[in-house]
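Example: UDP-glucose 4-epimerase.
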Amino acid sequence: MSARTILVTGGAGYVGSHCCKAFARAGWNVVTLDNLSRGHADAVKWGPLVEGDILDAEMLDAVFARYKPDVVGHFAAFAYVGESVQQPEIYYHNNSIGSFTLLDRMRAAGVSKLIFSSTCATYGVPQQLPIDEDHRQWPVNPYGWSKLMVERMLSDYAAAHGLDSVALRYFNAAGCDREGEIGECHDPETHAIPLAIAGALSQDRPFTVFGTDFDTRDGSAVRDYIHVEDLASAHVLAAEWILDRRGFNPFNLGTGQGTTVLEIARAVGKICGVKRPPQIGPRRTGDPPVLIADAAKAHSELGWAPQVSDIETIVRTAVAWHQKSNLVHSG
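Written out as structure tokens, the predicted fold is:
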């Protein structure tokens, strides 16, 4: 049997590029579609890059006709919570309407399998911990709502049109490719670990911990950090799983373990060999004290388990990437 083909929207971005590598390693043909507004062409190393936007229906028709993918991996999205609050219109346009356009053209092309890059932001403030897939979904920002709208579309398209999908709800994606080929490069950077690395390695960019008065073991917020390579392996398993499954199928991706922001800062300092205490700032509006995943469903149904998501590996791979790419010193 010839190799399967996956079309990866947003495959020039952080999680998307790591997933492209994992699919290629698993024997898939990989085609990346990215408008490069926030992705990086040099992260596309495993198959062709089509530069285009998911809002462009004619372009999508041409891509589906040329490459005839068996599965679509849909990562193309804006993902800054603060920006979504300030400019909700661009989130609903890009994330929600863009996804609708993609689904519409998938139907026209007869492509009926999709893996969706979703988020724990669809849950909002946790009502119980750990959070499982049946937890109420009530986002607290437009980013979360824009992603939840896509999940709703996927559920309805599965029922009405036989477009089968998996929604993978990430908790805190972190770390970088252990072989150093690709990594994390956002502008602006909002993720705790790269900010902590910048704070450790650059005196003029102190790392700020937002809130040390939460009801947690050291007062700082607790998050479930999952290595991006473990996320990538879940996407490969999900794509293989959905080929002979039906319906809309959500899965959490996390470790079930929580790490505080202050623990992250200490781990970064230790690996960087730097003792520079973080600044302490006020809590950010809407920040829950604790977010931890119950990923038992992914374990039981996909056969997935995180392999490299211990905090030392996450931080060490992130530090190695930042030092190699000179991001910390480039301002």
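The chain has two domains: 5-174+225-253, 192-224+256-325.
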